[in-house]
Write a structure and sequence with these properties.
7 strands; Aminopeptidase; 31% helix; seven-stranded mixed sheet
């Protein structure tokens, strides 16, 4: 695989690319309603993308709270780029960005089939499994 570039979204086109990744993974791939996948938080959030050969292949959204907590949402990587370390590297990059913004903790709702991935990346389970958009999830957190 060519060089990977992890970056915060700074242009309208980069945001469009990030949203297209999300559409591909969640709306098309998991049949989740667009009204849930896209919401009013998109314009107010920090978005991070991963690119290779000029193509965006992964994205994640972060909502910064006043109490130092950051909510990680809608992390998505195109199928052909999964299981190659992009997700772990994206988390490392976003943790650096959050520290710059003085965040102290990350929380997320992980789909149950990827909760072990987040555990390997230092997140811990917080509470029981629950259902969200018809998919089993679990709340997880990580101190920065």
């Amino acid at each position: 695989m060519s060089e990977l570039v992890y970056k915060t979204v700074n242009t309208k086109q980069e945001l469009i690319d990030a949203l297209n990744i999300r559409r591909h993974v969640f709306v098309i791939g998991q049949n989740i309603d667009e009204k849930i996948v896209f919401d009013l938080y998109d314009d107010k959030s920090l978005h991070i993308i991963v690119m290779t050969e000029g193509k965006t292949v992964g994205s994640v959204r972060l909502r910064l709270q006043e109490d130092g907590e950051a909510k990680l949402e809608r992390m998505a990587i195109l199928p052909n780029y999964r299981r190659k370390g992009l997700g772990q590297n994206m988390l490392t990059f976003l943790e650096g960005e959050l520290r710059k913004r003085l965040a102290t903790k990350i929380v997320l709702h992980a789909q149950s089939d990827v909760s072990k991935f987040y555990e390997r990346c230092g997140f811990s389970v917080e509470g029981p499994y629950f259902w969200e958009v018809g998919i089993k999830h679990i709340k997880m957190k990580k101190q920065l």
